[in-house]
TrEMBL record:
Family matches, as SUPFAM superfamilies: ERH-like
Family: Belongs to the E(R) family.
Stretches the record annotates as Disordered: 95-119
Annotated protein name in UniProt: Enhancer of rudimentary
Length: 119
């Protein structure tokens, strides 16, 4: 997940550039976390599931990623399904990297919890 990525969000009418797909996935989660923080100002910790994040993404008229493919020297458009799958892979990898060495836990493949403390 290291290719330059551009996110296009129509209902927000915005375009944002990232050095990697990973940065773009963090930004998407950050957008949702910002919304949750506004809706729950007293909460010190934000916690949600993949389905919640996906519903948030679905509220946009257009949610597209353009990912640079060096082998083709062009940007490839990626749809919402690709973005959702990339989020799962991205955050599953983060959880695995931060988990202590212990036997693997069983979980459903399209669910993850993401926690971030507000500063």
């Amino acid at each position: 997940m290291g290719n330059h990525t551009i996110l296009l969000l129509q209902s927000a009418n915005s375009q944002t550039d990232f050095n990697s797909e990973s940065e773009a996935m963090d930004h998407i989660a950050g957008l949702y976390e910002t919304r949750l923080a506004k809706e729950n100002p007293g909460a010190g910790q934000v916690q949600y599931r993949a389905e919640d994040l996906f519903r948030f993404i679905d509220t946009y008229k257009e949610f597209v990623a353009l990912v640079f493919e060096p082998s083709k020297a062009m940007y490839q458009p990626r749809d919402i399904a690709w973005i959702k799958e990339s989020l799962i892979v991205h955050f599953s990898g983060q959880q695995a990297a931060s988990a202590p060495l212990s036997p693997p836990r069983h979980h459903q493949p399209q669910q993850y919890d993401r926690q971030r403390r507000r500063r």
